[in-house]
Amino acid sequence: MKKHNSILLLTFNILIFFSSVNAQTIDNFSKFTKEQMEVKYHPLPSRFVERGDTSITIFTGFYEDYAIYFVNPYQCFGTITSNPIGLIIDGKEYGFYCDSERETKKHVFNFLDIYEFEYLDRKYVSFVSPKENDFTDDNLTYFCYNFFDITDRANVIANSYTKDAKQTTVWEELEVLHQAIALTFHPAEDGDFEPVKNDSDELLEAAKNLSNSELPAYFEKTENQILKKEIQVVFPKLVQQSKELHNLVQEKKATDKELLQKLNNLHSIYHHIEKLNNQAKKSNSKE
User: Residue ranges of the domains in the chain?
Assistant: First the structure.
């Protein structure tokens, strides 16, 4: 009975979060392309299954059903809750993460939103949650996005990243590049090169737009001048790597290994820019 109560309480929390924040949690990938992202459906809990010490909540979606499994309910801040451990899509298990490298598995306490969408002729489902230790929509600091390319159910591609929930200064061009890389680099890591072959021009455009964009105001701080100079030196390298990748795709002679190497180079440059930006923002937040 305790297990059923905990799952029902978690479901109630999910429904409350959906009604209050799902509009702000949808990250619109169409910012970097003319093609629109079309949200199809917000899957909701439809039934529960018990297997030993594991409770499974089935979410019915537009494309298919998704199962989130929970193990060992426990007491948290006076409320019985369960800890979502993972996701099952078409019989295969996937973890939840809060970083694009997907290095450290996260224990998710609840979901702010779940939505299915189509983008660039591919199908996705996205799970949005607070970062660990963020428990209510009043004190949220970060959103964790775990989105899965479910176009080919036999070869689901998992992606994840973190977004600042309270960020007032958004460097939109950097966000656009981040999304462009997430939708091309991570599939290629898993052996799917169709996204980068189809969208290398979008990557190049995103790189050029970032390179030509106005730096956020915090780079003008005296203590950030070194970071400003360094990031301006990196921009040409970003554009050059994007051009080289796009040219390889256009020539249609490159091997998958060569494409992955170029993508790795581009991915590394992006992370260097992101690191410099985070350092500048951190310096600005100390004031």
Answer: 2-164, 187-285
